């Protein structure tokens, strides 16, 4: 059913919940997990000085976040591909899906209550609305 499962990560607890689900599904379907971290450099382009330092720090954070996914997947016997890229998050996710024959996206949401529970977050919500492949959203537990 699934050969390639994408799990975008930002290193947050909400992402961790999605990672667990993605690895479980990949193991069940003998699929490959793709860990993707997107550095949105445009968000820091207005800084007069230091923008490059911020972007480099985010790239390092992305490498660490995707490596954590790879380690967890390897421990579960699941093949993994890691990628750190720059761009607008939801567009980069969409482009990655098209370029890598992704069958499913597994993304975290933040555990929220009240009105906020209806808002998945701007990136997740946009991916859900625009994706050509199924998107599984995984809510961060209240315990995190």
Label this structure with key terms:
144 residues; alpha/beta; 5-stranded parallel sheet; 43% helix
General description of the model:
There is one protein chain. By secondary structure, the protein is α/β, with parallel strands linked by helices. Helix content is 43%, strand content 22%. It has four helices and five strands, in the order βαβαβαβαβ. The chain has a five-stranded parallel sheet, with helices on both faces. β1, α1 and β2 form a beta-alpha-beta unit. α3 packs parallel to α4. The chain is globular and about 50 Å long. About 7% of the residues have low confidence.
Give a short synopsis of this structure.
This protein is of the alpha/beta class and 144 residues long. Helix content is 43%, strand content 22%.
Largest sheet: 5 strands, parallel
What's the total count of β strands?
5
**SSE order:** EHEHEHEHE
Proportion of residues in helical segments: 40-55%
Mean pLDDT: 87
Number of helices: 4
Low-confidence stretches: 111-120
- Class from helix and strand fractions: alpha/beta
Span between termini: 31 Å
Strand order of the largest sheet: 3-2-1-4-5
Envelope shape = globular
Strand content: 15-25%
Cα-atom radius of gyration = 15 Å
Task: Give the helix/strand layout.
Layout: E1 4-8, H1 13-29, E2 32-39, H2 51-75, E3 80-86, H3 89-99, E4 104-109, H4 122-130, E5 135-139
């Amino acid at each position: 059913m699934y050969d390639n499962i994408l799990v975008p990560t930002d290193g947050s607890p909400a992402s961790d919940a999605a990672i667990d689900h993605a690895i479980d599904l990949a193991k069940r379907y003998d699929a490959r997990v793709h860990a993707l971290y997107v550095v949105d450099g445009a968000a820091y382009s207005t800084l007069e000085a230091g923008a490059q330092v911020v972007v480099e720090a985010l790239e390092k954070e992305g490498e660490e976040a995707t490596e954590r996914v790879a380690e967890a997947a390897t421990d579960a016997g699941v093949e993994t591909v890691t990628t750190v890229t720059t761009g607008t998050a939801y567009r980069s996710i969409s482009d990655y899906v098209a370029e890598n024959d992704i069958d499913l996206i597994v993304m975290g949401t933040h555990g929220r209550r009240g009105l906020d529970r209806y808002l998945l977050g701007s990136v997740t919500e946009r991916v859900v609305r625009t994706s050509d492949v199924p998107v599984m959203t995984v809510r961060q537990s209240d315990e995190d």
